[in-house]
Design brief:
Layout (H helix, E strand, L loop, with lengths): L1 E7 L1 E5 L2 E7 L2 E15 L13 E10 L5 E8 L5 E7 L1
Antiparallel strand pairs: 1-7, 2-3, 3-4, 4-5, 5-6, 6-7
InterPro entries: DUF6504
Organism: Streptomonospora mangrovi
Protein name: DUF6504 family protein
Length: about 90
C-alpha cells in the first residue's frame, strides 16, 4: 500500500533516468531503480495530437538523511512535468 500525492517535484536526470529529486525542500538521492514502465495519458485522442503523450513511471528506492524509502515518480512527456505519484509503505 502507499500514500498518493501527485505533487510537482524537481528531478535531476542522468542518461534519461532520475538520479535525484527534491520534495518538500528535501533532496532525495535515488539509490536503486526498482521498476520502470510507460503509459499513455488517458485524455489523449488521435484527432488532437500526432504522437500520444506518454507518462513514464519510475519506482525508485531513494533517501535523504534517513533510511531509504520507495517512491513512484512520474514524468509527463506532454507537459514536461515531474510528479511524486506515490510513496510506498
Amino acid at each position: 500500500m502507499g500514500h498518493v500525492y501527485g505533487v510537482p517535484i524537481t528531478v535531476t536526470e542522468h542518461q534519461g533516468r532520475p538520479v535525484r529529486f527534491v520534495w518538500d525542500r528535501r533532496v532525495y538521492t535515488v539509490r536503486h531503480i526498482v521498476d520502470h514502465w510507460i503509459t499513455v495519458r488517458a485524455d489523449w485522442t488521435p484527432a488532437h495530437h500526432d504522437q500520444p503523450p506518454q507518462r513514464v513511471h519510475w519506482r525508485v528506492e531513494a533517501g535523504s538523511a534517513g533510511p531509504p524509502g520507495v517512491y513512484e515518480l512520474l514524468h509527463d512527456s506532454g507537459s514536461g512535468r515531474w510528479l511524486l505519484a506515490r510513496v510506498l509503505d
